[in-house]
Amino acid sequence: MDPFQYVYVIRNSKQLEFHEFANKMASKTFDYPALSKGKFPELKENLHRIYQYLQGKPLDIISDHMMKNLQDIFEWKCSQATDWETEKMYKFCCSVMFEASFVTLYGRVPAADGHKVISEIRDKFIKFDASFPYLAANIPIELLGATKKVRKELIHHFLLQNMTKWLGGSKVVQARQDIFEKYELLGDYDKAAHHFAFLWASVGNTIPATFWAMYYLLRHPEALAAVRDEIDHLLQSTSQKRGPTYNIHLTREQLDNLVYLESALNESLRMCSSSMNIRISQEDFVLKLEGNQEVVLRKGDWIALYPQILHMDPEVYEDPKEYKFDRYIENGKKKTTFYKAGRKLKYFLMPFGSGISMCPGRFLAMNEMKMFLFILLSHFDVELAENKAVRLDNSRMGLGILLPDVDIAFRYKLRS
Questions:
Q1: Quick one: angle between helices 221-237 and 362-379, nearest 10?
Q2: Which positions in this protein are listed as binding heme (predicted)?
Q3: Which pLDDT tens digit goes with each residue over 244-272?
Q4: Residue 206: its pLDDT value, please?
Q5: Which positions of the chain have pLDDT values less than 50?
Q6: What domains can you pick out in the chain, each with its CATH number?
Q7: Distance (Å, rounded) from C-alpha 250 to C-alpha 374?
Q8: Which pLDDT score, from 0 to 100, does residue 40 have?
Q9: Quick check: helix, strand or coil at residue 380?
């Protein structure tokens, strides 16, 4: 519970392991065999190595593709919106982010009804995702209605004969395919299940996080105005025109310099993230903590950090239940120093986990959400169409980004 002690848990990654727990949970949830060293030597390490495609120069390439795909989808979806169009916000975020992520990672479905095919996959995904907390809690899938059937259908979309038809997939997915081919003991269905798990990891939390970022901006006009002003200023300074017919290009540096956009996004993540950081002791040992404290751990003992307690600590964040879009800005620059009891915190915002369990796709996820908001706010006038409070649905507590308890209508039209 004490954020100053987090560092002692996080740095003891040899004795306090995460991957074994994650491996067991994922193999059960997504229906592939556990990555045992005997059966699949070095598979875990090889898959981990592939995350280099989500950093540095390769991240720029995949982000560029995501930006182009987001713009194409916004244009296809919204170019008719000369007058106000009304939609449900969560459904809208889900539709746009799911398709853009799918096409960016796995490639375009070349059929004439490509959008329809992806929509069908998305609808099944939503049904499966509704059961995810139960699967994570180890409830047998046989007790969860149609979930087993839906999961099987989803996995079949990722069989090799289907994936080879998709055009322009990402290097990260191609590299995963190449690795799976080296393991004869992995059946076609098992490989497809791994691809499906990767899709869930890519969008399962990004979609609700995008919703909350958009929802809080629309609830707070001063936040919306500041972020939009920053976006317009960047377009003017780089001589880029806004509107569905113009392609906007953003470098990583330009995205990083949108301090109000990033602060607003971080603030919504602070309020809606609920990840529990779990570690399992690999041996009997004494965990030494600050101030000569120590905890005697037995092999198999669990330790859990719950950063949401930190995110809602009024000593760290004044009025923690209030959305303050500029909370992470100081003197026009990113604010990275936060204090508790007069001491500087090493960890103050942890929506993506920590240490060895930190989400490897966090940089791409942040870029995707920034780009979604950038296109939305540069192209459209947007406002809430109903005045009701949307609250956090706590059924996923401990598992990532919390979903909204209800959907809410919003309106949009092309900016003049």
A1: 90
A2: 359
A3: 777 899 998 999 999 999 999 999 999 99
A4: 97
A5: none
A6: 3-414 (1.10.630.10)
A7: 10
A8: 87
A9: strand
